[in-house]
User: What shape does this take?
Amino acid sequence: MSAVDIIIQEVAPRDGLQIEPTWVSTDDKVRLIDAFSTMGFTRIEVSSFVSPKAVPALRDAADVFSRIRRMPGIIYTALVPNLRGAENALAADADELNMVMSASETHNMANVRMTGADSFRSFAEIAKAAKTAGVLLNGTVATTFGCPFEGRQSPERVIDLVRRYLDLGVDGITLADTTGMANPKQVASLVERVLALIPASGLSLHFHNTRGLGLANVIAAYDVGARRFDSALGGLGGCPFAPGASGNICTEDVVNMAHDLGLKTGLDLASLIALSRTLPALLGHDVPGQVMKAGRTLDLHPKPVLVRA
Ligand code: COA
Ligand code: ZN
Assistant: This one.
């Protein structure tokens, strides 16, 4: 039995920072990731090995990987769109390659300039390279619950892509709601179907809170058996190639909710909140997280004078 009830992968260093207009220095990225490494995470998405023209904010991925202090028991993962990215991630000693393509052909073209067929041709080569190197392999289906250009994607399409990833021998699958279009009923129905294909230990849900349904979707997925979720400190995040994209579900908000529900996360909530409160100064703007503003549910306040007397 696992010591935690749900596994939360921190994705702020990758999904969070990829959309930030202000350059975050390599030193600051390393500081952030090293702090996460002390807070109980077992999975951290460190960066992505993509074209520096496409995502300038993460152009220092190799430097970041070389400078972070790796802690035993933590999987430091890297997003890769193509073989070139996978080779660079392997050279940087990533523990896991996270391949990404979209259920929607239009978003795949906008995001990685490939058809779905092109993406899978390149994934076959990546899978070979990962097996040879002995690193873990994850397959992400972006726009699973809807695409900002095409609308809803059929569950059959998503399930077909999951099967194709499984045929390549991936260790895990991530269903991503790239622009926060998912609703709890849709989530429950699809997650149930996908859990017939893979165990809960191999399925992650990646929700964005674009329309305020992020945590409701977590509960809907949890209730039908999902146990792994991506989230970003402060609720940072968003895809630069999807109009209207905004923040991931917020790590400290998810953790606060989980702890209130009696679910163990293994994470240090007070330290997460303290770290989240440093983000506005780092990024030059307010962040969407709510618990970093309101405090934990049971952080009580001194009684008013009137009541004390
Ligand atoms: N890492 C770094 N550079 C890469 C790269 C990689 N993985 N793959 C390609 N490149 C470089 C090429 O060398 C070329 O450089 P040049 O212009 O200096 O010659 C340039 O990127 C374009 O290469 P090309 O193969 O023609 O790719 P493209 O323009 O069709 O773009 C991707 C394809 C996948 C590289 C690009 O769309 C991309 O990086 N997308 C990432 C999107 C992303 O991260 N989205 C958010 C996460 S879901
Ligand atoms: Zn995302």
